[in-house]
Specification:
The chain is of the alpha/beta class. It has a single domain, classed as Arginase, Chain A, CATH 3.40.800.20. Helix content is about 35%, strand content about 10%. The protein is built from nine helices and seven strands; from the N terminus they run βαααβαβαββαβαβαα. The chain has a seven-stranded parallel beta sheet, with helices on both faces. Helix 5 links the parallel strand 3 and strand 4.
């Protein structure tokens, strides 16, 4: 896995917003890749009226909502982010992009997200007859992605996220509907959770992911669960991102990833580098130590986890 990046992502101007260009400027010696045009793929997920509205609002510098800012070059940055993610899905690489995407719905952008990069790439794969596992380890629930695939059995969505936190959804009781019942797996971790619970979340539900037998694994890679990130209250270290990469690469062979959150630039760099090293089965690059999670927080997590296991036993061997 290698990085796919283009300098156009720096032109999505959000000023001093937490999701700003300094996130990517912190990466040194990045080469600007040739990236395919993402516009032909937008309607795989988004409706035409929304796409036209986004283009118009970007030209005028009108925000999509109070958190999701637009500027003159935001539309080309967002469509290039889609193109980079499509490209990553074809080459098994990491799309280092902004704006992020997993909070975006077919007709609505929110939570810093304009177009849902990973959902578009996944739908493109589904249209080719592929079964796709989405692992979303961003500290916020990927509500847009979950909603888009909530009623299909062609995509298994597995999300580890702080609960409660923005966007306020992601409860373990939401397991999908219709053909997709049992294919939406929300694993909440309470505020104050550390490495032990974050890694337990993926390991506990890994058997379901393997039973799904995906052709491709798509990763929404967010790094805002880190202990220093100001938007959440988790206590995860950069070691966990390496371990997650290891777990994925040890169990699945066809993997790509796209950047979501992570708002402390120097930590974001370490997290991405560790995750890619884990995927590539290379030595860990960065390490730090954090204590185990408090017992009361662990009890809350186990309540969530056990209730989810009971629900999923109707659909999977777990």
């Amino acid at each position: 896995m290698k990085i796919i990046y283009n300098d156009i992502f720096l032109k999505h101007d959000t000023g001093h917003h937490p999701e700003n260009k300094e996130r990517l400027r912190a990466f040194k010696n990045l080469e600007s890749s040739d990236i395919i045009d993402g516009r032909p793929y937008l309607e795989l997920v988004h409706n035409g009226q929304y796409i036209a509205d986004v283009e118009m609002k970007c030209k005028l510098g009108i925000s999509l909502d109070m958190d999701t800012l637009c500027s003159e070059h935001s539309f080309i940055a967002a469509t290039t982010a889609v193109g980079a993610t499509i490209q990553a899905s074809q080459t098994g690489d990491f799309a280092l992009v902004r704006p992020p995407g997993h909070h975006s719905y077919p007709g609505k952008g929110t939570g810093f997200c304009i177009f849902n990069n990973i959902a578009i790439a996944v739908q493109n794969l589904v249209n080719q007859g592929k079964r796709v596992l989405i692992i979303d380890f961003d500290g916020h629930f990927g509500d847009g992605t979950s909603s888009i695939f909530y009623d299909t059995d062609k995509v298994l969505f597995l999300s580890m996220h702080q609960f409660p936190a923005f966007p306020g959804t992601g409860h373990p009781s939401a397991i999908g509907k219709g053909a997709g019942e049992g294919f939406n797996i929300n694993i909440p971790v309470p505020p104050g959770s550390g490495d032990d619970l974050f890694i337990d979340a993926i390991q506990t539900f890994l058997p379901v992911a393997k039973q799904f037998k995906p052709d491709v694994v798509a990763v929404s890679a967010g790094f805002d669960s880190h202990k220093s990130d100001m938007l959440l209250d988790l206590r995860v270290s950069v070691d966990s991102y390496y371990r997650i990469g290891q777990i994925i690469s040890q169990n699945f062979s066809n993997v790509f990833a796209v950047l979501e959150g992570g708002y402390v630039p120097e930590v974001l760099v370490k997290g991405v580098e560790n995750f890619i090293a884990g995927i590539n089965k290379e030595p860990k690059i960065h390490s730090e130590k954090i204590g185990d999670t408090d017992i009361k927080i662990m009890d809350t997590y186990e309540h969530y986890s056990n209730s989810l296991i009971l629900k999923l036993r109707n659909y999977w061997n777990i």
